[in-house]
Amino acid sequence: MAFGWKLYGDGKTPPPGEAVAPDERLSWPLTIGIGAQHVVAMFGATFVFPLIMGLDANLAIMMSGIATIVFLLIVQGKVPSYLGTSAAFVGGVAAISAQGGGVSDKVGAILVAGVVLALVGILIQVAGVRVVNKVLPPAVTGAVVLLIGFNLAPVAAQTYWPQDQWVALATMAFVIVASLALRGFWSRISILLGLVFGYLLSLMLDATAGPITSVLGGATEATVHDRVDLSGVSAADWFGLPDFTAPSFSLNFTLLVLPAVIALVAENAGHVKAVGEMTKRDLDPVLGRAVFADGVGTVLASSVGGSPTTTYAENIGVMAATRVYSTAAYYVAAVVAILLGLVPKFGAVVNATPGGVLGGITVVLYGMIGLLGAKIWKENRVDFANPINLVPLAAGIIIGIGNVTLVFTDNFSLGGIALGTIVAVVGWHVARALAPQEMRAALMSEDGFRHGTGPALGNAGVHDAGGADPSSLDQQTATRTIERETRNP
């Protein structure tokens, strides 16, 4: 199924307990409205991350639309998802910048990672999910995601925050309050709302308090400057193509971003599982296709200078809220993103985002990326009393966060995320091979997980701890919703 959607009922919003399937659609006006919600949901992160990585945000938005269409075609419309800018590459790209790499170096390294991700997708499709799960158990995957996020702390603390510490503090506070005080859809876009708040606050301070003296990103000395520089906006055209950049390739730079592939495999698997649960369909047979399609999307985007892509949890949240899983809405969102990318003036406004605003946002975002690794550990009941999990992962995490470097020659070295990932992945498997029998057996009997670590050892792995994790907010929310609908049928 590609474009042959069946009209759901009378084309109106589904009643409680019902949902619009991926191969169905509402009336076109309602479908366009849902598509617009998907645009808003993906928008904040899709242009914030390119800004942080020093890439063209306008081009990233346009290529996200193209990548989404390609993704939907490859998965044959079975996995409704939007491909926005991936956060997993931010750490590696920051490391490339620290070593003097330019935009072409960044997108070249990302392109190679996209090829690797596509190959992993083919492997999953041919050999099955268990093969990949044996290589990347939850303990290891969580460690890699955690060190990718926390490795970025110096970027937020030393590059963005000092450009305007008070705006950064206000933006950070706004994001925290908005994510808690707002409800539903609005809380999901708290990062976007925080960016708008910080942008407007900076404009107001420029008008009332005047210029600020600070060190801009990439500079070495403090200068007097406005918080928001809109000179590029007036010079930009209303309509036109974004600036394209051809990739260049370097082994050193490629190794810095390859660990992101591990995070993307885990991310895609989680999202496909989530969509499968919501649509009540077994999507495991198309997981390989989804990972392959994500890799292809990343290759397409980076081949012209765009950002890496990944399936977006934000848009999965929109589907959960609306109960509309129609891929037609995603095609609408993709077309809107492509059209936005053809407005250079819009891109200029985005690129004028003050560094202080990014400082307030990145301290939250980078921490969230890192804590996603802890979430993987928690959901899989990883037991850190077992030295197999504790020792090698502890070493890999500190190497990644502390940017420890291993120098081989004058022209080749491994450090930070790349070295930390290698230590975590290889170290875990070596530790498991060398550990006493009782430690290996403990992996198979971790509390609350029938078959032990399950996916880590190639088993199906089923939680068996008296139901779902009682601390899961999503589970509690779902339970309360069911209770309300039972009381008020």
UniProtKB/TrEMBL annotation:
Signal peptide: none annotated. Keywords: Cell membrane, Membrane, Transmembrane, Transmembrane helix, Transport. Residues 455-489 are annotated as: Disordered. GO terms for molecular function: xanthine transmembrane transporter activity. InterPro entries: NCS2 (IPR006043), Xan_ur_permease (IPR006042). The keyword tRNA processing does not apply. GO terms for cellular component: plasma membrane. The keyword Cell wall biogenesis/degradation does not apply. The chain crosses the membrane at residues 59-75, 82-101, 107-128, 135-153, 165-182, 189-205, 249-266, 328-350, 356-377, 389-408, 414-435. It comes from the Bacteria. It is a multi-pass membrane protein. It is found in: Cell membrane. Belongs to the nucleobase:cation symporter-2 (NCS2) (TC 2.A.40) family. NCBIfam families: ncs2 (TIGR00801). This is Uracil-xanthine permease.
